[in-house]
Amino acid sequence: MRDSYLGKRIRGGGYAFKGAWILIKSEHSIQVQVGIAVLITGVGFYFDISKFDWMFQFFAIGLVLSAEGLNSAVEGIADFVHPDFHTKIGYIKDVAAGAVLFAALTAVIIAGFIYLPYLFPNLFLQ
């Protein structure tokens, strides 16, 4: 079964979980984002948000964590390929960090749509 199609998929899933665990254990930015995700999930329970709000919230969390993970991978590859400072490596790292910024801003906007009406109900009367 080890070399079967299903065996390879199961093994690949194991590598994915291993990679996620490595990110959570070793990458400070991922740890911060996971902390924010736990906090905002608690806020979602507090305000009893709708299932659609949960869907958008978890999409935003996944988007940010994915972008952070890819950014960490790009930085690791760049540092491995060229450990000393190089302007092109700096450019690559900046672009990867910019992608994380886009994801984080998207998550903040989604959080605003979800939570501002709960925090300021008088401003969002319909």
TrEMBL record:
Binding positions for substrate per the UniProt entry: 68
Family: Belongs to the bacterial diacylglycerol kinase family.
Name this protein carries in UniProt: Diacylglycerol kinase
Annotated positions binding ATP: 15, 27, 75, 93-94
InterPro entries per record: DAGK, DAGK_sf, UDPK
UniProtKB keywords: ATP-binding, Cell membrane, Kinase, Lipid biosynthesis, Lipid metabolism, Magnesium, Membrane, Metal-binding, Nucleotide-binding, Phospholipid biosynthesis, Phospholipid metabolism, Transferase, Transmembrane, Transmembrane helix
A GO cellular component annotation in the UniProt record: plasma membrane
Any matching Pfam family: DAGK_prokar
Record GO terms (molecular function): ATP binding; kinase activity; metal ion binding
